Amino acid sequence: MRSVWEDSNRLVLSALTLLLTLGLCVMILAPLVQILAQSFFDATHRFVFLDNFIDYLSQEKSLRLIRNSLFVALTSTLIVVPSAFGFAYALMRSRMPLKPFFRYVAFLPLLAPSLLPAISFVYLFGHQGFFKPWMGGSTIYGAWGIVLGECFYVFPHIVMIFLSALSLSDARLYEAAQSMGASSLKKFFTITLPALKYALVSATLVSFTLVVTDFGVPKVIGGDFNVLATEIYKHVIGQQNFALGATVGVLLLVPSVVTFIVDSFVQRKQKAVLGSKFVLYVPQKAPIFDTAMLIFALVIALFFLIVLGVSFFASFVKFWPYDLSLVLKHYDFSSMDGGGWDSYFNSLSLAFWSALLGTIAVFTTAYVVERGKVFPHLRAFLKLLALLPMAVPGLVLGLGYIFFFNHPDNPLNALYQTMGILVVCTVAHFFTASFITATTTIKQIDDEFEDVAESMGVACYETFFKVIVPIATPSILHIARYFFVNAMTTVSAVVFLYAPSTTLASVAVLNMDDAGDISSAAAMASVIVATSLVITLAFDMLSHVALKQSQQWRKAR
Amino acid sequence: MVLKKSILAVTGLMLATHMFAAKESITVYTALESDQVKPYLEAFKKAQPDIEVKIVRDSTGIITAKLLAEKENPQADVVWGTAATSLVLLEQNGMLEPYAPAALKHIDAKFKDTKTPPAWVGNDVWGSAICVNEVEAKKQNLPIPTSWEDLTNPVYKGKIVMPNPASSGTGFLDVTAWLKIFGEQKGWEYMDKLHDNIGQYTHSGSKPCKMAASGEFPIGISFEYRAAKSKKEGAPIAVVFPKEGLGWDLEATAIMKGTKNLKTAKTFVDWATGEDANKLYAENFAVVAYQGLSKPIEFIPSNYASMLIDNDFAWSAKNRESILKEWSKRYESKSEPKK
């Protein structure tokens, strides 16, 4: 009896592993290979193998660009990882007031198209900005502007990783430490941090790669401070030189490969924290600590609110900075770039499908990779595929999609020019961060659950739907929300893929700003932020209900 | 699995809706400003009510990159109102279908491809212009420049923004114009001096004028349509046309090779290069390709046409890479951000 169950479980898992690998190959690998292969050809399509790389790296300029990219990525990471950790820690481990408020504020940057902070920074710190008199002649355009913008942009991604890791800490360990008389500091260093090792490494790598590959922030606020990601923009959009664009794209893949190697190394040392006897940690009152955490959270929240508020304000101003009277006309998008309100509804539909299909794809992939038990090498490969998209600049991914999906011999050709391809591309583009969240969660669920289930002759999908999914519900809802809000704001990949009937609000923001209609761009961006905020609230209500329904057992003891 | 099934379902739905589309329809890629596209298309609809035009509109760089990436299986039937330099690039890739539109003999010889039949035909001219913020100029005691040479005056140190020629077509046409006006050697010497005054090289061609309009930098080297539009919207700027001459490019139209709708595409191009369409272009641009239709435009001097330099699109296209390499060597390598 038992072996029959084992066999059918293996069959289901094998089929699933194969299907997911095939799916990710189509969504991620094939388009990438198509575009990256270009880096081995010159402008006249002659095969030159590594000449492009040798050529590129031998220029004095390239080394400076690499140095610049490393500088902003390292600086941003050094700022963002500790502050995001502090923020997540304050939310999970202190009893500061206003927690729900801070939770929303932490995710605000995720809701905003990347142009929005750029518009705000110029209004705040530019030559005509509010804070100009206090800036002492220094300028926002350049390395520090990029670092500031990247910190804003990366923060929620990193908070998400820490929140999900911190939410699964076992109270029993702290109780034991307490009874042995350990100080809070000692508990932090011997229990909290070791349990978070994996999350810390992930957070650092995610932050580093996100900054290195982002071109939105450096493009608008970087001034003459060029980085590798903007170099791709110059080659591809400015000069239509795909070969050189792809060459730089390959260089940007290096961090992702490093992520994979480091990650698999750390993984071996990671042990499940959430056992079947798990008890949820509930923080104790600690007035001094709570106040300190509150002040820290307030400073960050204030910064985020100001950045968003300025753009929101700007969307009503008649002509910045010379005519500050307030008008509503910028919300009439009919004569503007990008398809107006139609684009907005297209974006909603893209966000809905990406959230639905993306969450299913990501969570199943993470589960198979972590608990699949079959085809160990294939699963390692699947994991590499899942980690790859983070390192791929959207521009490169988008072009790869054209080359791959628009090829006349591709049977998936019918997808081209439809909402379908936008959904697939968006899911692929934002796969990695959600995948890491899902993996972190699944890792922390004790595999005793599966062992027990299997010995009782329960089918693996039953364990999956009745045990794993309910435990992971908060994390699954995080992922769905993450896909939704990113689909609302994404530009870089989809800008090449939208068709006349599938124009998008996020692209409209970019185009309106490009056409000089900054106020309308700010207005559309504000509409996007408001929508995502409503959706976030809805998700949280869902999450609340789900928690009540499915996480009872946590309190049961 | 679920993912794939659902995608197929979505795709099926979309295909189904496609089948009910009008019987004659073409896909047109354009880099025209969208506030221009709307009235143009309404006019076309009046002339040809049975043809549905599906528009993909984006910036010149995106449209060109998209067209090149789709080379194996072109989605566009027509490229309309897109930089002639881009169309030359497409032609070099063998992607254009030569066609002599009905009104060809009325088109100024300077504003079309030299071959017969031409691979592309121009619509209107867009050229360099300088936006100067008058409020800021007064505040910072800056004289209003009247020539390219004036911009090298040390009083403007750090006050000027211009598009980076490596990422913007507008930036590139300025650089080629200076090389033409001053000659190769003097041209680079001029840019050396100008570089000392540049506060920032931007990625897009309209950004410098926008920055000037909002006073972020007092002077922006941009192009005349953006300048006139900003001024009309109430920006306190003076639009300066440097007296040495103006670099320019064309917004031009061509048929994509391999289009499945060649007849409809020809109908559209006949209209887009014809008298009625050119009359509409003349509302927005001081110089249009159809002879005798150009008329004065607000904020643009009446002698605008005579200020345009002699352009050689083939020369620009051929030397683009070497010019950009030289430019980048001179100004990007040594330009660590100014503190």
Structural features, described:
The complex is a heterodimer of chains A (557) and B (339). Chain A has 22 helices and two strands. Chain A has 557 residues and is an all-alpha fold. In chain A, β1 (317-319) and β2 (323-326) form a beta hairpin. The model of chain A has no long low-confidence stretch (mean pLDDT 84). Chain B is α/β, with parallel strands linked by helices. In chain B, strands 1, 2, 3, 4, 5, 6, 7, 8, 9 and 10 form a ten-stranded mixed sheet that branches. In chain B, α2 runs antiparallel to α11, α4 (84-92) packs across α13 (313-332) and α6 (169-182) crosses α7. The relative contact order of chain B is 0.17. Chains A and B meet through α1, α3, α10, α13 and α15 of A and α1, α2, β2, α3 and α8 of B.
Key descriptive features of the protein:
heterodimer, A: 557 residues, mainly alpha, MetI-like fold, two-stranded antiparallel sheet, 22 helices, 2 strands, 1% strand, B: 339 residues, alpha/beta, D-Maltodextrin-Binding Protein, domain 2, 2 domains, ten-stranded mixed β-sheet, 10 strands, 43% helix, 18% strand, globular, disordered C terminus
Give a quick rundown of the structure:
Chain A has 557 residues and is mostly helical.
Helix and strand layout, with pairings?
The complex is a heterodimer of chains A (557) and B (339).
Chain A: H1 2-36, H2 51-58, H3 60-93, H4 99-111, H5 115-125, H6 143-166, H7 171-179, H8 184-213, H9 216-221, H10 228-238, H11 242-269, H12 287-314, E1 317-319, E2 323-326, H13 340-371, H14 376-387, H15 394-405, H16 419-429, H17 431-444, H18 448-455, H19 460-489, H20 505-514, H21 518-550, H22 552-556
Antiparallel strand pairs in A: 1-2
Helix pairs in contact in A: 1-13, 1-14, 1-15, 3-6, 3-8, 4-6, 4-12, 5-12, 6-8, 6-17, 8-11, 10-11, 12-21, 13-14, 13-16, 13-17, 13-19, 17-19, 19-21, 20-21
Chain B: H1 2-19, E1 24-30, H2 34-47, E2 51-57, H3 60-69, E3 78-83, H4 84-92, E4 96-97, E5 121-133, H5 134-139, E6 160-163, H6 169-182, H7 184-197, E7 198-202, H8 207-213, E8 219-223, H9 224-232, E9 237-240, E10 248-256, H10 262-272, H11 275-284, H12 304-307, H13 313-332
Parallel strand pairs in B: 1-2, 1-3, 6-7, 6-8
Antiparallel strand pairs in B: 3-10, 4-10, 5-8, 5-9, 5-10
Helix pairs in contact in B: 2-11, 4-13, 6-7
